[in-house]
Write a structure and sequence with these properties.
Elements lengths: L1 H73 L10 E8 L2 E12 L17 E10 L6 E10 L8 E3 L3 E3 L4 E3 L2 E3 L3 E3 L7 E3 L22 E3 L3 E3 L13 E2 L22 E5 L4 E3 L5 E7 L16 E5 L7 E11 L4 E5 L3 E6 L14 E3 L4 E4 L14 E5 L22 E4 L3 E16 L4 E12 L4 E4 L11 E11 L1
């Protein structure tokens, strides 16, 4: 009977080992399946996250790119020259996708406001668009450089809506334009429009401009010299009469920042006054000093100073009703920035002959950067004189100099230095026997009297030098 019991015990022990091995195998398989499942889920989550990030990257790039395209479209509308950017919401229909923060700057990094970019490429704008999504996500920066266009009229030294007249002995180094007739005197010392190179009929220019000009003449009406045809002796560049109506001088409308002021300012002999940009002045008068010549000590002369500040890209605006610069008196620009001088004599129709806005007497200095005895002309793009007076050329009405029987909105009488960009779309401009003058002039009608020399400063741009249609893509960068 004993052998069978021993065999039963052996059978029971074998079944227990098999059950333990099976359990271990099941646990290992479950663990392996769990690990595989976790790995698959991790890979799936990683792929999903990568897909989401990739989708967000594409979306935010599209948002930033949309900001650039918006800015380029904005730069082809009115006010393009002073557009500095904005925050642009980007949507898909009514669904917000994100926003693009658009910043528009000049190529050198300065702001184009008030519409002027310094440097060698003033027509270029750098657009920077930073895109972000409506939900949390990455940011993307896209940069584009575009170039605008401008009319050739911005390169004129002198341009008159109702005509330009040059008396005997006049020398203009630069191009001259007229939306009406252009007349040059012949006589013993003929007037001339000169190119920038020495060796022609004109003497070499007194200043060297950054780039050459041709000494050309363009007019909607006739171009005559002493009543007859002009030749290369008097106009060294292109002679182009009978241009299409309104095609020569740029159309400019001034928008005064305020009404004429009423607070007068009188600067006496030997006094120096610095203008306060916060004040809207009335009539400003600089006293005359000296007799046949100016006082040797410049501190004995009446001096008006406009401080342009320390920011070379900044602009200081000063306002006054009118300005009378007496004999030997000085208007000096200090600092490193730009100055816009508004002369706010009431603008009425030319027939009403509003009062004169600016008059400067003999040996006066207008637009020097030096306070010492030797004047230094300011660059044309740093000093702009906007004149709203509609006083026509030769009108005998209200003149700042009581001894003048006929005057214009702006007149200079034998001044020692004149520098700046003059914009007088409704009034006349008269220059008489001035020798050290440079910049650019746009006026209703222009008269240069005997022995006047005017040299174009290529940094000046009449008509504001505005650019538009920034549709030429020059560079594109995805950051």
């Amino acid at each position: 009977m004993s052998p069978p019991r021993a065999m039963g015990r052996l059978t029971v022990r074998r079944d227990g080992r098999e059950r333990g091995a099976a359990l271990l195998t099941v646990l290992l398989m479950v663990t392996l399946i769990a690990l595989i499942t976790l790995m698959v889920m991790a890979i799936t989550n990683a792929d999903l996250a990568a897909g989401i990030r990739q989708q967000q990257a594409v979306q935010v790039f599209n948002v930033a790119e949309a900001g650039v395209h918006y800015a380029m479209a904005r730069l082809q509308t009115a006010g393009a020259d002073t557009y500095t950017g904005e925050t642009v919401p980007i949507t898909d229909g009514s669904v917000p996708l994100g926003q693009a923060v658009v910043v528009v700057r000049c190529l050198n990094g300065s702001s184009p406001n008030p519409g002027a970019c310094a440097g060698a490429q003033p027509a270029f704008r750098r657009i920077t668009s930073t895109g972000t999504l409506a939900a949390a996500g990455p940011a993307r920066v896209v940069t584009a450089i575009v170039e605008g266009t401008t009319s050739a009229t911005s390169s004129f030294a002198v341009c008159g809506y109702d005509g330009v007249n040059l008396d005997q002995g006049v020398r203009i180094y630069g191009d001259v334009g007229s939306n009406a007739a252009l007349t040059l005197a012949r006589g013993g010392t003929p007037s001339r429009i000169c190119d920038s190179l020495a060796g022609g009929a004109c003497p070499a220019p007194s200043i060297t401009p950054p780039f050459p000009y041709t000494g050309s003449a363009y007019a909607v009406g006739t171009i005559t010299c002493g009543g007859g045809a002009c030749n290369s002796t008097q106009i060294e560049g292109t002679i182009a009469p009978n241009q299409p109506a309104g095609s020569v001088c740029p159309a400019v409308t001034l928008s005064p920042p305020s009404a004429p002021g009423t607070t007068p300012l009188n600067v006496g002999p030997g006094a120096t006054v610095t203008l306060d940009p916060a004040v809207n002045y009335g009539r400003v008068t600089l006293a005359s000093t000296g007799t046949a010549s100016c006082p040797a000590n410049v501190n004995d002369r009446a001096t008006l100073i406009i401080n342009s500040g320390t920011d070379p890209n900044g602009t200081v605006t000063v306002r006054m009703r009118s300005l009378w610069v007496g004999k030997c008196a000085r208007v000096v620009i200090t600092g490193s920035g730009r100055v816009v001088l508004w002369l706010l004599e009431p603008a009425t129709s030319p027939a009403s002959a509003a009062g004169q806005a600016l008059h400067a007497e003999q040996l006066s200095i207008f637009g020097s950067t030096a306070t010492g005895a030797t004047p230094a002309a300011i660059e044309g793009n740093r000093f702009t004189i906007n004149v709203v007076s509609s006083k026509p050329l030769g009108d005998p009405g209200d003149c700042l100099d009581a001894g003048v029987s006929a005057c214009a909105a702006v007149s200079f009488n034998q001044s020692g230095l004149i520098a700046g960009t003059f914009v007088i779309p409704e009034g006349g401009y008269q220059l008489d026997q001035a020798q050290l003058t440079n910049g650019a002039i746009l006026a209703r009608r222009i008269q240069f009297d005997r022995n006047t020399t005017f040299t174009y400063d290529p940094r000046s741009s009449i008509g504001g030098g505005t650019y538009s249609n920034f549709d030429r893509l020059r560079a594109w960068k995805d950051q």
